[in-house]
Specification:
The protein is of the alpha/beta class and about 200 residues long. It has helices at about 30-35, 45-60, 80-85, 125-130, 145-160, 175-190, 195-205; strands at about 5, 10-15, 20-25, 65-70, 110-115, 135-145, 160-170, 190. It has one domain: Rossmann fold (3-Layer(aba) Sandwich), CATH 3.40.50. The two termini are about 20 Å apart.
């Protein structure tokens, strides 16, 4: 097994990509992709990168899951929402919770995971869906890198999935936080691999 030392971080082992991956596209809802949203930003390059990933995954019969934050009442994630009041726009039935139209050909009732918190795993049925499909590894993309992507990556590892994060397919309103989060995930919880390598991986399955 190859090991690598990243700057002053711990020695890490090289992990082999799994044979049964799934894509977790985190929070590509209008609330996060629309620059007019208080939660949004300019993420067009990330949207295009994800379309490339999701198209390649679908062609290789790799399952794809989308997450969206949805609230039905004031009690759900009340402390989180008090800390970040902009989350209150994410009400069920609103335009803000819908997955971006760029992915309309791929998102459906069965592969959209509704959540109240940053992680795609916390209090959702994502883990059981992945287990039912015998998934062994996750390709994680999404918004934002330092928030919901990182939380999903950490929880993915804690469910013992091999996690890969694709930097071109993740975005953040804070660029230093984006870079630091990618560094931190690669140093401890995941492999950060370029878009081109992930596409080649799908084609090899």
């Amino acid at each position: 097994m190859t090991v690598t030392l990243i700057d002053n971080d711990l020695v890490i082992g090289e992990l082999q990509l799994g044979k049964r991956p799934a894509v977790i596209a985190v929070d590509f809802s209008n609330g996060f992709t629309d620059k007019e949203s208080p939660l949004g930003g300019k993420f067009e390059p990330q949207l295009e990168a994800n379309l490339e990933i999701i198209t390649a995954a679908t062609e290789s019969k790799v399952p794809v899951f989308f997450t969206t934050v949805v609230y039905d009442n004031e009690q759900q994630a009340s402390v989180f929402r008090q800390r970040l009041p902009a989350l209150n726009i994410l009400q069920r039935g609103s335009h803000w919770v819908d997955i971006h139209e760029k992915f309309s050909a791929y998102a459906n009732h069965d592969n959209i995971i509704e959540k109240h918190y940053p992680s795609a795993f916390f209090s959702t049925n994502l883990a059981s869906k992945l287990e039912a499909l015998n998934i062994d590894s996750l390709i994680i993309t999404g918004l934002t890198t330092s928030g919901c992507v990182r939380a999903t990556c950490v929880d993915g590892l804690q469910h013992n999935f091999l996690c890969v994060v694709v930097p071109e397919a993740c975005g953040d309103r804070n660029q230093p936080a984006h870079a630091m989060s990618l560094h931190d995930m690669h140093a401890k919880y995941a492999q950060v691999l370029p878009l081109s390598q992930v596409i080649s991986y799908f084609k090899s399955l």
